[in-house]
Amino acid sequence: MASNFHRFFGGSPGSVIVKLLFLSLLVGAFMAMLGLTPMGLVDSVVDMFGALWNLGFGAFETVGKWLLYGAIIVIPIWIIARLMRGFR
């Protein structure tokens, strides 16, 4: 049970929390330097989907193609990474 727990988190919970806190600090500082806020990012995503809706359903075809093209690259890399993780 403990090995599954450690495998899921990628280490002990304490070390994972410390890593996540450090990464959160770095990302937060980077966002602050760029003048970005989490709510601003959410608003941008909502605006993007609103603009796509206003463009018509043809835009969804384009987004679908982008999603498919990206998945052709991302999914095999993800599968290989998961398989390689299992051999450690």
What does this structure look like?
With 88 residues, this protein is an all-alpha fold. The protein has 2 domains: 1-36; 37-88, no CATH class. The chain has helices at residues 2-9, 13-34, 38-55, 57-86. Helix 3 crosses helix 4. The model has no long low-confidence stretch (mean pLDDT 84).
Task: Give a quick precis of the structure.
The protein has 88 residues and is mostly helical.
Keywords:
mainly alpha; 2 domains
What secondary-structure arrangement, pairings included, does this model have?
Elements: H1 2-9, H2 13-34, H3 38-55, H4 57-86
Portion of residues in helices? over 70%
The main pleated sheet reads as:
none
Spatial gap, N to C terminus: 18 Å
Percentage of β-strand residues: under 5%
Poorly predicted regions: none
Radius of gyration: 19 Å
Would you tell me the structural class of the helices and strands? mainly alpha
The tally of domains stands at: 2
The best one-word shape is flat
What is the string of SSEs from the N terminus onward? HHHH
Q: Output mean pLDDT.
A: 84
| Number of strand segments | 0
Total helices: the number is: 4
